[in-house]
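Repro:
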Amino acid sequence: MKTFTHLLQLAPGVNPGKIAKLDANLALNLQATTLRVVPSLTDSGQVSIEVPNAKLVVARLSDLFDQLARAKKAMSKLEFIVGKDISGRIVTADLASLPHLMIAGQTGSGKSTMLHTILANLLPKNSPEELKVILIDPKQVEFAPYEDIPQLQRPVITEPSDWNDALSWLLQESERRTQLLADSSSADIDEYNTRSEERLPYILAMTDEFSDMMMQGGDEVERIIASIAVGAAKTGIHFVVSTSRPSVNVYTDTLKVSLGPRMIFTVASRVDSDNLLGESGAEKLNGRGDLLYRMSTEGRADRIQAAYVSDDEIQRLTKILRDD
């Protein structure tokens, strides 16, 4: 979804917040179904008005890969393409520096597709010795194509008892790795792997419907994730958690601090947007991969059209991985 941005210089004394409240009238006059008014962070007298193109422009992951290849842009092992921003620039993110990610959005907004996009970025360039993935699929449908790929740490997890077992194992592995780093005087997993005969793979734990995990055992899930998250950048254990029900009981204050960076697709209300981002706007997104991405707690979220990978492409990718 390509977005056009109009910069508006306000008359002296005009509060940008008043302009934001006129979004419905502005949308009507600009013949847009919705728009987002964003006050400038650098100039209190300016606002930008983001107006999405009525015509859907798909940012195909394969096309974005080709663009980066032509530009000779190298990507690190844990770096992945997020999509394109409103200026058409390709946006990437790196789990090595994030090191975790919260995702939320209504059904059909593009939330689950982003999980496949991340996997489609990372799996082809990381061998099973370099990356292990733990996939938690409470709905038992989203991660089925990845069953039996060599990067799986264990079979795709669908049962609550197996979720708990996987989290307990991750906590033990985090503690083991922390001790290994200390014993070898290594600053992080990369330095350890250059010094030791035992190579530690990165671990990506990804869940499609995190709210189910929190309903089954929220306090323990929160405790374990918070414990692992502290040293994740050093130990190489990363969480990507996603939900269509982003209530305060799912993404608690503790988890928001522990997991940090977030991608928010269309949500139901301004309350949800404020809870997740500390600002409104996600309730005005257009669906189909339109998202707000915030890498840190500072600054405003960037609007991005998510990269798209099709079901057929996922099937071809996982077949190649299994056949290698």
